[in-house]
Design a protein that fits this description.
By secondary structure, this protein is of the alpha/beta class. It is 54% helix and 8% strand.
Amino acid sequence: MNTQANCDFGMIGLGVMGRNFLLNVADHDFEVIGYDLDPEKVEALNTEKSVSHVQTTNELTAFIQSLKSPRRIMLLVPAGKVVDSVIDSLLPHLSAGDIIIDGGNSHYDDTTHRMKALENANIHFLGMGVSGGEKGARFGPSLMPGGKLEAYEPVRVMLEAAAAKVEGEPCVAFLGKGAAGHYVKMVHNGIEYGIMQLIAEIYDVLRRRGGLTEEQLFTTFSNWNEGALQSFLVEITSDIFRQADDQREGEMLINNILDSAKQKGTGKWTSQSAMDLGVAIPTIDAAVTMRYLSSLREERIKADKLLKGPELKKTEHQEELIAMAHDALHFAMLVTYAQGFAMLKKASDEMGFDLNLVEVSKIWRGGCIIRARMLEDFMQAFAKDDALLNLMVSPAIAEILNRCEGKTRSLLVQCLQQGIPTAALSSCLHYFDSYRTSRLPSNLVQAQRDYFGAHTYERLDKTGAFHTLWGES
């Protein structure tokens, strides 16, 4: 291969995501080079690469020598120790001002530590969330870079070219300081967990209570995707109900998939960070919990024979149930996004990210897994009020929530009466009701804490901390 410094961009890690993202950049007439220790992955890229603009190697020195200065190197390798190992192998070969981009699902704390360590070596580091899966990486993902602006500028043109486009605007923006990019991607994944669980619960209600066939489910979700619920996750859900099982003739694949969902940990990270911040994200918490419960399949099968609940009856009012389910999903998706954006607002203030939530909404409109029509409404809400603490109190969003809450309640009453679990959907209504309640019963919690632990309490009519010798009056 040619070892002259003629490449604009380098990729380390030629798995599915790395290979596709590199080809995406090359499609926009940038000279690129891919590196991987695995000769088979290098060869796989060679067999499908564009005729021009792409070089490959499994020799690190050749990879480094092929890059123009400042070197722009992106990593798409497994998060954790592998990232540190790759960085360590690169450092002896890099020069001041070179740029490393971590495009994996790294924990934001790791990104912060790496950024500081590389800054001492005069190497720029960007933590960048990448969303869109295999197809998004190839044809246009949503990109969420964070770090220092001077590190972003040399790669801006390439990232804007590779990113998804909505109305001609690239779905990438410099999001903020430090680990802002990976933090935003983590919350994105938490919202993704929440919405996926909500859709699964709605599917369960329509199937078990409504008696909808796979063809009816396909039609229902397809119709929903033409309106206010238009989103990538609703769209692929409709497609799933159309998929025949190629291993069991005459059956639909969805009915033969194990009801035990795995996870890679980003949803859990979101819940953990929210607890550290003191932010309520009950729908994301519920989604993580339900994945854990789904993994207990053998226990659930035994419990099903022992634990009793109401007898499930199919409704005679199928169309009414579908209408309730539509409004409930609309309500719940809005509330889930509201929780995620509220978390981003608090994290930005606490961690100094300087996030612009208009920009976050904008780059999530295309390419990413949680892209949805309602993100346009969120953009407008944050543009009108950049101090907005929660999307639910944006007048436009509040109007939709108020319109949908009645049918959401009605659907949940049926689920409760029929014994259909709706942990995520229920959490949305509880969050909504708690947030709109001006006086919660937490005064009793304060009193209890002071009673047994002398933790003190606050009063409505006076400032300061108070303690009472309970039971002595």
